[in-house]
Amino acid sequence: MASNAQYRRVLLKISGEGLMGAKEYGLDPVTLDRVAGEIRSVRDLGVEVCVVIGGGNIFRGVSGASTGMERAAADNVGMLATVINALSLQNSLEKNGVETRVQSAIVMPTVCESFIRRRAIRHLEKGRVVIFAAGTGNPFFTTDTAAALRGVEMGCDALLKATQVDGVYSADPKKVKDAVRYDRLTFNEVLARDLAVMDTSAIALCRENRMPIVVFDLHRPGAFAQVVSGCGLFTTIAN
Ligand code: UDP
After folding, report:
1. Does ligand 1 come within 6 angstroms of the Cβ of 52?
2. ipTM greater than 0.95
3. Where does the record place a coiled coil (predicted)?
4. Is 182 annotated as a binding residue?
């Protein structure tokens, strides 16, 4: 591990919207390339990086269900959207010279590997980035819960949650001018105050397994490497 890195292995959670750039839907190639560069800089610090990616830039099960689609079917579509994002990010990472494997919770062997925990660990040990696609593989879950689950399974030191702002605030800082940013919170405070960080099942899984969550803004250049080195702006949530 590089001397200034605080972690040996991290799980990065990126929402689908985080790959959209200024677009209203889908993927922005420039944003994908920039995010890939951020991941490479952390990998170059000697930190093992795995990624869980959302699908909200393409399809969300809840929205599908609101138009009359059966929820489980809509969630399957949502999970497939995360595979599109995962393969696209893999492509950008490999263009940036980072060897990457995609492992999907829904098997599709002609497109990517299936999720096999021990195999994923081996990839990380070899310096590859592993992107986990298709969430948990089950409807009625979110990719936040998938991130907590994979983070714990892979023995990650922290779950780094990339958002559109530089931490957790008392209210939405884009709407409330005097919203307060927290440097540190406990899991219980997040749950008791109903702070919109991740869904409660993800928070509970991290709390039970004592895996800290670090919330930061992936769109600020260099932020990912800074957070991993313990500097810059972020909120840490721990026991
Ligand atoms: N999804 C699911 N099970 C999972 C993870 C995701 O059914 O374990 C579906 C669900 O429909 C969700 C969609 O995939 O709306 C996209 O994931 P998510 O909304 O978490 O993406 P994000 O908000 O992070 O972009």
Report:
1. no
2. yes
3. none
4. no
